[in-house]
Amino acid sequence: MKAVSLLQQRHIPFVTIDGDPSEEVASVNTDDRAGAYQILAHLLAIGHRRIGVLSLEAANKIDHAGFSLVRDKRLEGYAQALKEVGLSLQDPRVRVLHCECSLGGRRGARSLLSDSTAPTAVAAMSDIITLGAHACWAERGIRIPDQISLAGYDDIPESALVTPALTTVGQQGVEKGKKAGEILCSIIHEQSYEAHVLFQPRLVLRESTGPPESKGECQGVDRSRIELTSVVSSGISRAERRPERR
Questions:
Q1: Can you say how many angstroms the Cα of residue 53 is from the centroid of all Cα atoms in its chain?
Q2: 221 pLDDT exceeds 80?
Q3: What confidence tens digit (pLDDT) does each residue in 110-144 have?
Q4: Has residue 229 got a pLDDT over 50?
Q5: Domain that holds residue 43
Q6: Exposure of 74 in the CB half-sphere (CA atoms within 13 A)
Q7: Rg for the chain (alpha carbons), in Å?
Q8: Which pTM was predicted?
Q9: Residues 183-209: pLDDT tens digits?
C-alpha cells in the first residue's frame, strides 16, 4: 500500500487497523472471515437455501484496497458456511451483488427481488447497506422477516433502532481503536508491544431473521407469515495475541 510505504520511508510510527497484516507493520484487526461465517451459518441453520449477498464496493479508488481486503475475507467466510451445506457463491441459488455503502442497499434490494428466483434471506456486508435494503422493502410493504430475512454486519447503534431490529455481527470498533493507540504509544516510547491483535466478532441475533416456510423452501416474498424465533446472542470479544516485539 502506497501510504504504508511512505510512512516507512519517513520513519513515522504507525499502526494499521483492518489492514493487511505483515511482519513489518503492527496491526489491529477483526476476524472478518469468522464474522461472515457466523452470520451466514445462522441463516443456513434456520433453513434458508436461497441466499442473497450484498457485498462491499469501494466508493472511489482511494478506498479500493481497504474495501477489497475486508470484502474478500467476508466472502471467504460466506463461502465456508455455504460449502458446509453443499452450496457455493457460484450456485444459482446464491446471488452476490456489489453495493456502495450509500445508496447501494436500496438498489441491491430492488435487484434481488426483481425475478422469480428471489432469495429467502439476505446477508449484507455492512449495516449501512442493510438499512438501505430494510427501508426499500418497508416502503414496498415487504415484511421482514415474515417474507424475507435480513442480516447485516457491524452492529452500529442504528441497527437496534429500526423495526424489526437487525440481526448483525458486532465488531469491537472502540476496543480496536484503543488497542491501536496503546500499541502506537509503545512504539513511540520504544516499549514492548503486541505486534498483531485479532479481535473476534460476535453474532447478535435480533428480530430481522427467521426460518422460511416449514414445508419446503419458500418462493421469495410470496410466502405466508411465519413465527420469529430469534433471540439475542451475548458473545464476548477476545483478542488473539502474538509474540511481543521490542
A1: 10
A2: no
A3: 999 887 789 999 999 999 999 999 999 999 999 99
A4: no
A5: 32-171+203-233
A6: 28
A7: 19
A8: 0.80
A9: 999 999 989 988 899 999 999 999 999
Give per-residue pLDDT as tens, 154-173. 999 999 999 999 999 999 88
**For residues 225 and 15, what is the distance between their CA atoms, to the nearest angstrom?**
49
Domain for residue 6, yes or no? no
Instruction: Please give the average per-residue pLDDT across 22-46, as a whole number.
Output: 94
How do strand 196-199 and strand 168-170 relate by DSSP bridges? unpaired
168-170 and 202-204 strand pairing = antiparallel
pLDDT at 243 over 60: no
For residue 31, which amino acid is it?
D
CATH number at residue 94: 3.40.50.2300
- For the chain, what is the domain count? 1
Residue 129 belongs to some domain of the structure: yes
- Look up residue 92 and give its amino acid: P
Q: Establish if 67 belongs to a structural domain.
A: yes
Q: Is residue 143 a part of any domain in this protein?
A: yes
